Amino acid sequence: SAVISQKPSRDICQRGTSLTIQCQVDSQVTMMFWYRQQPGQSLTLIATANQGSEATYESGFVIDKFPISRPNLTFSTLTVSNMSPEDSSIYLCSVSGRTVGTDTQYFGPGTRLTVL
Amino acid sequence: QKEVEQNSGPLSVPEGAIASLNCTYSDRVSQSFFWYRQYSGKSPELIMSIYSNGDKEDGRFTAQLNKASQYVSLLIRDSQPSDSATYLCAVKVGSGGSNYKLTFGKGTLLTVNP
After folding, report:
1. Exposure check for chain A: N or C terminus, fewer CB within 10 A?
2. Is residue B73 within 8 Å of B48, Cβ to Cβ?
3. Per-residue pLDDT tens for B15-25?
4. How many whole angstroms from its chain centre is CA A87?
5. pLDDT value of residue B7
6. Is A43 in the B-facing interface, judged by CB distances under 8 Å?
7. Contact, A2 vs A99, CB < 8 A?
8. Which of A30, A4, A27 has its CA nearest to residue A109?
9. % residues pLDDT > 70 (chain B)
């Protein structure tokens, strides 16, 4: 596995603002994934981010709302833009490939976002 | 739409009993299956993976896979209160390499009563 950190761990934001969440891994990984988990729900994949290419978004998620960066093999950011209360959720990054193995995913601790 | 279904729960068992968690999946070509445990307020933690038909044991945990029935289960023997968590079934979808993702079930909340 790997040590994965996310910043911030939690935040309370105002409607209409944007928040950038960082995900840092202590070793090189091929793939980084961003999920959303709303209260009492399972995980919904937002997008997959591979280093050196554009992120691949799942149905219902668009780049303008959730821009993602993946500048290197250990780091990614997810921005939640123009937030509304419906964006209140836990946002999780996960990693796969290279030093952590290719066949599954390991999760960071999550970012708890509340939008007022 | 490739789906992963889990028994709805919540599931409550007494301490020391066997907890049985079930999962079915719709994508017949899926080859890799995972169980994650998620404590309240925490992120998912991988506890078991299984790739071949049959049973795979790891301590008190046994994963069972039946690809013909598109069914995967997790048995927890000698359940402990510390096993109380939500258990998520995940199925790998895609061809691997840089082109795959996990599809998660909704999870089953397990409570082990002392």
Report:
1. C
2. no
3. 999 999 999 99
4. 13
5. 83
6. yes
7. yes
8. A4
9. 93
Give backbone dihedrals phi and psi of B24, rounded to 5 degrees, phi first: -120, 155
Q: What is the mean pLDDT of residues A56-74?
A: 94
Nearest CA in chain B to A92: B43
User: What is the CB neighbour count within 10 angstroms for residue A14?
Assistant: 8
Look at the block and give the residue holding tokens 């999946």. Answer: B25
Radius of gyration of chain B measured on its C-alpha atoms: 14
| Tokens, residue A16 | 């209409």
Rounded CA-CA distance A55/B100 in Å is: 13
User: Other CB atoms closer than 10 Å to residue A112's CB: what's the count?
Assistant: 16
Confidence of residue B96 (pLDDT cuts 50, 70, 90): low
B-facing residues of A in 67-106 (CB < 8 A) are 92, 97, 102-106
